[in-house]
Amino acid sequence: MKDDQYPPLPPMTVGPAGKCPRCGQGSIFKSFLKLKDRCDVCGLDLTFADAADGPAFFVMLAASVPVLGIVLWLVLGVGLSYWLTALIAVPLVIVFAILPLRPVKGWLVASQYFHKAQEGKLDNQE
Ligand SMILES: [Zn+2]
């Protein structure tokens, strides 16, 4: 297999940077979250990659607690009005929930390649 010509790259080194999980050189993204069909450098077919809702799930999990904490502190602790709190909270949501999506998706795609994860198949089916 052609994969054997490349040393295995840890998903945490190539994934968050959006680099190809096989060669570590080419970019896997053609837009903010859309994946290319194949790597420009080594030609790895990226259609195997399906992170689905994975990035959104992990980012929501990690972002909801600090943002909710800050909003509750602003309303209950500082006593800011709801309007001012909303003006502060919306940019916080953008920073905490949208920006990490791309590195998390890159990490999940690289992990999928690294661990050769794919859809489960039953032995007794053709
Ligand atoms: Zn590549």
Task: Tell me about this structure.
The protein has helices at residues 11-14, 54-78, 82-98, 101-114. The longest helix has 25 residues, at 54-78. The chain has one domain (2-114). The model has no long low-confidence stretch (mean pLDDT 86). With 126 residues, the protein is mainly α. It has 4 helices and no strands. The two termini are 23 Å apart. α2 runs antiparallel to α4. The structure holds zinc ion.
Write the layout of secondary structure elements.
Layout: H1 11-14, H2 54-78, H3 82-98, H4 101-114
Helix pairs in contact: 2-3, 2-4
Short key terms for the protein model shown above:
binds zinc ion; 126 residues; mainly alpha; 4 helices
Structure summarized in a few sentences:
By secondary structure, the chain is mostly helical. It contains four helices and no strands. The model has no long low-confidence stretch (mean pLDDT 86).
